[in-house]
Amino acid sequence: MPLFASGLRKIRRNLLRVQSGQKPWVAKVGFFTAEQIAKINEARVSMGFPALLPEILFHGSHLYVSRCVKDNYTIDQVLEQIESALGESSVVDPSPPAVVLRNPNKRFDHKGNPVNDKAVFECSGRQPYADLYSVIPDGDGLKEKPKRR
Fold it and tell me: What's the total number of domains in the chain?
């Protein structure tokens, strides 16, 4: 699995820090598979962006606000989304310019909805690393935002 053995623990720690009003730390929580990072870097280089290293960082402020505060997910539910989105079967979503991993295998969320989890990465602030910025459980029944063009 592309999360380090301590990855979920570090992610939980940061989300709990944000929840309690403390500043989270930046932590290395996982990595892209060789195939994933090759596809990501091929696309980035073709668009004139620098290649990334395979390690994934996590801060968590945006993710906590968007999923726990705005969408009312619990931290445990967000951890399930992250674990699914970063699974070994996840594929690079070819929709530039964002780096997105999408798990093609549906899982059932806490409401029984079949969802495909996506992980969205921010890749400019902590180069040469990708920062796990958000997760999106596609199919969760929440109103979808229109895609930017």
Answer: 1
pTM of the model: 0.89
Tell me if 26 is assigned to some domain: yes
Asked whether residue 118 is domain-assigned, the answer is yes
**Tens digits of per-residue pLDDT, 5-45?**
999 999 999 999 999 999 999 999 999 999 999 999 998 99
Q: What is the pLDDT of residues 112-138, one digit of tens each?
A: 999 999 999 999 888 899 999 999 999
Among residues 53, 38, 108, 54, the alpha carbon closest in space to that of 80 is found at: 108
Our measurement of the distance from residue 98's CA atom to the centroid of its chain's CA atoms, rounded to an integer in Å, reads 12
Contact in structure between 61 and 136 (CB atoms under 8 Å): no
Does some domain include residue 100?
Answer: yes
Structural domain of 57: 7-138
**Nearest one of 53, 64, 58 to 25, comparing CA atoms:** 58
